[in-house]
Design brief:
The chain is α/β, with parallel strands linked by helices. 38% of the residues lie in helices and 17% in strands. It folds into two domains: 1-42 and 198-338; 45-136, no CATH class. The protein is globular and about 55 Å long. The two termini are 34 Å apart.
Amino acid sequence: FLQRQQRRSGPRIVAIGGGTGMPQLLRGLRAYTDNITAIVTVADDGGSSGRLRRQTGMLPPGDFRNNIAALSEAEGLMTRLFQYRFAESDNGAGNELGGHSFGNIFITTMAAITGSFESGIAESSRVLAVRGRILPSTLENVTLCAEVRQAQPDGSMEWRIVEGESALPRAAGQIERVYLQPAHARAYPEAVRALLQADLIVAGPGSFFTSVLPNLLVDSIRDAICASSAVRIYVCNVATQAGETDGFSVVDHLRKLDEHAAGAFPVALANSNYDVSRPPSGNSDWVTLPPGDPPRAYRVFTDDVVDSERPWRHDSAKLAGAVMSAYETLRAEKAAAE
């Protein structure tokens, strides 16, 4: 009972992101507060979400599905149910459900019943006993685009424009800048209000260019973050992501963050533990903090936040503990200075 009371009166935390990284953070933060708002990207256009987006004109449900499961009171069961994916047809006759996850179908159906995507998310959250809120950064049908630089055999550089979130990791070059079309998408008002009222705002972890930055490219979202009196922390990934952040260090992430959303997150949290049973898998490598000072605009906290069983991911409890420790430190420093 006491723990429930403490969570109900806990800090107002807004998490910003998408993909599979954000649910890792949310699972951990549930131990500290019930006052959680997740602001989620709507730029996804691949897989089941992309198909539903094209077929129905609705916003992509996949990232919302992941976060509803993470914040549900029955998280273990909800995760299995929402992530259940119908098998592709193998008889050549076609299968309308093939490749779709149950959670995406559920959210799409709820949106149709309630009359709008945002009410569908709200009602899905209520039915599934979600602790907290899950909001889109915008309700507009945005496309994520990127300027990509690729080295040519003769040593020259070729610049290309790549359109579509799912196409970016396959662009075979270095992503230099991302932007939204339309350029000035309107922010979802409840998301702006949550940012302005927050005690703590956290961006990441997650795919840097395709899950985290798209939210910050919505002008009023970025402006509200900068105007908020909240503690603002960017969580750096523990491993690089093939096709997006190959070869990136912590400093590289911060430089790109500053280029896209200057001043939004003056504090960063990075992993300090690279001594685990096995290294990141595939084409990934550790995201390390090079010797020397970080970019001038940033203060960097480091901690062991890696999942020892899946070292390319964050551990939910470790990550939330490190975030809350940094939050308490910064809040105490602010109080002492006043």
